[in-house]
Amino acid sequence: MQRPARVSPALIGLSALIGLAPAVSAQGEWTRPKYQLNPQNEDWSGIETLPAEQRDWADRLKWMALDDAGDWRLTVGGRARGRIEGWSNFGQTENGSPRSDDIFELLRLRAHGDLQHSSGFRAYVELKSALAWDRQLPGGTRSIDEDQLDVHQGFLEQGFDVGQERPLTLRVGRQALAFGRQRLVSPLPWANVLRTWDGASARVPLGDWNVDAFWTEFVVVDDDAFNEAGDDQLFGLYGTRGLDGKVLDLYLLGTQRDGRTFNGTTGNEDRYTLGARYARPAAKGETDFELEFAVQEGDIDSQDIHAWMVGGEFGVSFVGDGAPRLNALIEIGSGDSSAGGSVGTFDTPYPLGHAYYGIADTLGRQNAIDIGLGGTWPVGERTTLAVTAHQFLRTNDGDAIYNAGGAPIAGTAGGGSGSSDIGQELDLVLTSRIDRHTTWQAGYSHFWTGSVLDDVGLDADTDFVYLQLSYAF
């Protein structure tokens, strides 16, 4: 599809849109749900308890009665996000790509309608349009950058009373999936084009547990036509429950994908991931923690898969004006011991790597260790500064290291000089909440190459800077 002629910068246009929006009333905000990545998870059924004079313009689009009895309800909403990115040596770890410098713009627009009936029936539709201007880095305008006017989500849902506090719900159609902290399955909110899946899912209440069962096919982006599901399958069970102020998740995920290659072994893949996650959320004056562990079994062609991963974080939130939250983290994905034969490389099927292996998105979890220290400081009433330092190491010298897209970086398999040092990264992210609709964010990252990359001639550092503005209603 021919790209549109250059227009005014995305962030300027988005700023103009926000400037026209009515101001938010400060009263009664506690009754409103927070805007979420997946808007279908927002519950607006209590909005009528808020006096009309305390509602802003967007509240009037929520839970609108379509009949006198109030059985039919419609909720309308949307999202807009603009971002400018600047890169120096973006392509240094891309397989065979030249080093490149560039500045470009991204804009993502979303609009949704949520129709619900008192019987538990629901019809949900969400449209999206993702635009990119002037991206001249290796790969050009990619499928995660641009997808003009398509269906992001479109599903029918029915709830059933099964004698529990919560109903059993069945959902069929196109839907965005996000589980736990999104280490393994995420709609990838950082990208300009969100991931989505076609299929069926059910949420089953089992005592204190909520269990999601699902079978889906990954939707392939085609900017020249309507997006359709491909052959890659994702299915499984994901259960979660509260436990004395903590959260426990147990899951079994299955993936079936064709034409996969890991360290010299190629074929159609059947991979199963069994894992658990245990976490205590952050709170002022308290310690918090998270630990996630998973193992993978299966096969690629006739070769067995035996892999594992660990993700963990420990934090302390101090009390007082300007008091920070300090944290330490570790993320590990197993690697393969030798080329060919059985596969020991852990594969994250649809991850949110941006949240774990550095905001420069240099590396994926496969065969990589990330050891990090950081903190988050309030620098204003609604503004925070997050600083994180990363040390990246190779898990196994017999395997390559992999980029954020899961592709091996050429020449890095086999150990080289024997060093495990991939590099270091420093991330700075400043986030400010202007009001409950509007957030701006600025970030900077510097990646220093280590011996593993230096040995294959990828010895130039990377710099990344961005400015982002988001609006939700």
TrEMBL record:
Domain called Alginate export: residue spans: 74-454
Pfam families per UniProt: Alginate_exp
Signal peptide location: 1-26
Q: This protein's superkingdom? A: Bacteria
User: Which SUPFAM superfamilies does the entry mention?
Assistant: Porins
- Name the keywords, alphabetized: Signal
Q: Cite the Gene3D superfamilies for this sequence.
A: 2.40.160.100
Does Signal show up as a keyword for this record?
Answer: yes
Q: Does the keyword ATP-binding feature in the UniProt annotation?
A: no
Listed name of the protein: Alginate export domain-containing protein
Question: What organism is listed for this UniProt entry?
Answer: Engelhardtia mirabilis
